[in-house]
Design goal:
It is a single chain. This protein is α+β, with helices and mostly antiparallel strands and 404 residues long. Helices cover 50% and strands 15% of the residues. β5 and β6 form a beta hairpin.
Length: 404
């Protein structure tokens, strides 16, 4: 059976990749796909997986709320940006105070706790559950190790910048999600239902096949249907990209999302909102984030091997040169710096966030990508051939040069 879960408040591409991988390993799950833009997890499963999904999600994101799509909505638990900013500001203020007051250890500890208590707690919980090698573990080892060798400012500073990076990551995901939704959501909120001589405004999702709708000049065609009264010219550019309006008369089909430019029309609904073109376009772009390019899948697999190797190399850097030279403090510091720089977060984040942002930026300019695979393929394009003027131009010619 197919199950779809809403993961409210999930904004971390790195955690999303881990959740998808772990859910996909459940013995009764045959397929798992996590769409970060829609915050949905879709499963093909032989039995109900809610408890297992919730357990896996909370392993990586304790504050994310899991519910079945269509089920009762949980209280608002989305990523609290104001809370994070306040926490960063408070931690940074205490950090600055500790430096200005000559490096007071208690203030460094307070700043560290404010900024990173949940990172350390997450690392401990994951170790208990058998998931050792993740960014929480690396950040905890590196920063606590810095405390032990007396590098207090570095320990707090690393945690502060980790939080700043986490904030910008969230903002980047939210911005891309907003760009995509604003660019392609052509769905109407209401339609004008015609019954006899009366016209009433009803929610678009309440319109049924066979209903008659009034479309005034300047209105978008709300649903897919057929013109029954009136003549007009329809701007199909939002759907087809064609710059020249198309004439329509009774009996002609009209597509939702196009704009009625001149005359008043009465149309008969052929497809309800969930089946109309505007919804299909929105679903296509929303699902684009779930289409993972080859490089994304490679990076996700590589990170699972990469992290243990990094920890092992850091241990070697800390121990081997120290035994030879006796400079334990210097080489332990070097190993901890190596751990911070080698944190897999940036590696795993880089690809999905880049593609996700690309889909959002393209949507804002009217370019709809069907997924990361399409963007990846664009890198191999050597030439583009268009069939006619107006496909990528406005069809407005201008004199470029006069050769005398």
């Amino acid at each position: 059976m197919k199950q779809e879960y809403i993961l409210e408040g999930l904004n971390c591409p790195n955690c999303a990749a881990k959740i998808e991988a772990d859910v996909g390993k459940l013995p009764y799950v045959t397929a798992a796909s996590l769409n970060l833009m829609k915050q949905t997890l879709t499963l093909e499963t032989r039995e109900d997986a809610f408890d297992a999904v919730e357990r896996i999600v909370h392993r990586y994101e304790p504050d994310v709320k899991v519910r079945l799509k269509g089920g009762e909505q949980a209280p608002e638990q989305e990523f609290d940006v104001k809370k994070m900013l306040l926490r960063m500001a408070l931690g940074a203020a205490v950090f600055a105070a500790s430096i200005l007051l000559g490096g007071k250890l208690p203030l460094y500890i307070i700043a560290y706790v404010i900024l990173g208590y949940d990172v350390v707690l997450g690392a401990v919980k994951n170790i208990i559950k058998g998931h050792v090698f993740d960014e929480n573990f690396l950040m905890s080892i590196a920063t606590i190790g810095a405390f032990f060798i007396g590098e207090y400012p570095e320990a707090v500073g690393v945690m502060l910048f980790y939080r700043v990076g986490e904030y910008f990551e969230h903002r980047a995901v939210e911005r891309s999600r907003k760009q995509i939704m604003e660019a392609v959501d052509l769905r109407p909120e209401v339609v004008h239902l015609v019954k006899g001589d009366d016209v009433t405004e009803i929610p678009a999702e309440a319109a049924e096949a066979g209903d008659l709708l009034l479309v005034r000049p300047g209105d978008r065609i709300p649903l897919d249907g057929i013109v029954v009264r009136g003549e007009s010219r329809i701007d199909t550019a939002p759907i087809t990209g064609e710059p020249v309006p198309v004439s329509v008369k009774p009996g002609d089909s009209v597509t939702s999302g196009c704009v009625n430019t001149t005359g008043q029309l009465t149309m008969k609904v052929e497809k309800v909102l969930s089946e109309s073109m505007v919804t299909r376009i929105l679903n296509s772009v929303e699902n684009a984030a779930a289409s993972k390019p080859k490089i994304d899948r490679f990076i996700t697999r590589f990170a699972r091997i990469y992290t243990p190797i990094v920890v092992a190399l850091a241990a070697l850097v800390a121990v081997v040169p120290s035994v030879i030279t006796g400079e334990w403090n210097y080489w332990v510091y070097t190993a901890l710096s190596f751990l911070v720089m080698s944190c897999p977060c940036a590696l795993v984040l880089s690809v999905p966030l880049a593609f996700f942002s690309g889909i959002g930026a393209g949507s804002k300019k009217g370019i709809l990508f069907k997924g990361g695979l399409s963007i990846e393929a664009m890198g191999k394009v050597k030439a583009v051939v268009m069939d006619k003027t107006g496909t990528v131009t406005k069809g407005e010619f201008k004199v470029q040069q006069i050769a005398g």
